[in-house]
Automatic annotation (TrEMBL):
It holds the Pfam family Aldo_ket_red. This is Aldo/keto reductase. The lineage of its organism: Bacteria, Bacillati, Bacillota, Bacilli, Bacillales. PROSITE patterns: ALDOKETO_REDUCTASE_1, ALDOKETO_REDUCTASE_2, ALDOKETO_REDUCTASE_3. It comes from Paenibacillus contaminans. The keyword Oxidoreductase applies. GO terms for molecular function: oxidoreductase activity. Belongs to the aldo/keto reductase family. The active site is at Y54 (proton donor).
Amino acid sequence: MIKHIQDTVALHNGVNMPGLGLGVFKVEEGPVLVQAVKSAIAHGYRSIDTAAIYENERSVGQGIHEAMKESSLSREHLFVTSKVWNADLGYEQTLAAYEASLEKLGLDYLDLYLIHWPVKGKYKEAWRALEALYREGRVKAIGVSNFQIHHLEDLMSEAQIKPMINQVEFHPRLTQKELLRFTKEQGIQLEAWSPLMQGELLDNPLLLELAAKYGKSVAQIILRWDIQHCVITIPKSTKEHRIIENAAIFDFEMSQEDMERIDGLNQNRRVGPDPDNFNF
């Protein structure tokens, strides 16, 4: 379990990934996003997560480059993730999509590249492309997003390299215990998107009770719950005070009893699409 914003988790290939990062889902290109990336890096974040489908890679890249220019940080200090979208899940298309993401970000490599969704009949060809990029040293780590256990088993039945990350919707209403157990057994690190359930949990009575008990906000309670489950998390915010608040979760620890009470909020309920029933 990480104990500081810049602490890292060792992936199964030995690459160290920060345990807390900034997500930028649904943030439009422009100065607000550029400033959010710069603020996050200035306040200690070292991981930024974007995707081709977000259509904001240029602003993410601009924020990264301006932050490096204004500080002593070099590219190696940062961990940048992007994802290949469903329309590009062929072998050659995935290779081209990777190059397009690099060009928009203005980077020479990515630290992590993910298959965004498990599109039936397509993700294995895309994975072959990710394996090629990884072998060539073009990307530090490769993984998937929104894969359920049966998707992972199917992919690994033919893959030469096991995914290092599985980034999924994960929050107290969707605890995914079986998937968490399976990925731990396989040495695949789970990463949470939408950890705050897009704000739906902020007035939950139990979480409000625990926030009062620990002197924290509900968002901090949820993010701490992620960290204590050893799940990497990437909360989204464009507001500097929220970016700071989301990282102020390393000065307390919840009891096992309170962790289990939060686990008990599970309803297997998603705010995003179901990976098995998503109209791609």
